[in-house]
Amino acid sequence: MRGKAVRFGIATNVHRDEVGTSMTSPLVTVVIPLYNGAAFVKEAIDSVLAQDYLAIETWVLG
Question: What is the distance in angstroms between the CA of the first residue and the CA of the last residue of the chain?
């Protein structure tokens, strides 16, 4: 995947608070640069996906 960017894991940033009011959370972008990192990319992506915060987009650059 040399020289390409892959974007995945976009979640909605709208949620409801305790009383049901619609709220917007800031979108967090996670950038994972890859250079000879094929052995670690799954672990890095799994770590992002395991977060409790839902408004995340992830870019894997290689």
Answer: 6
* Number of folded domains that form the chain: 1
Q: What is the pTM of this model?
A: 0.60
DSSP designation for 26: P
Quote the percentage of the chain above a pLDDT of 70: 63
- Residue 7 is which amino acid? R
* C-alpha–C-alpha distance, residues 17 and 14, integer Å: 10
Q: Which domain holds residue 20?
A: 5-61
Handedness of CA 33, 38, 42, 43 (dihedral sign): negative
Structure tokens at 58: 């992830």
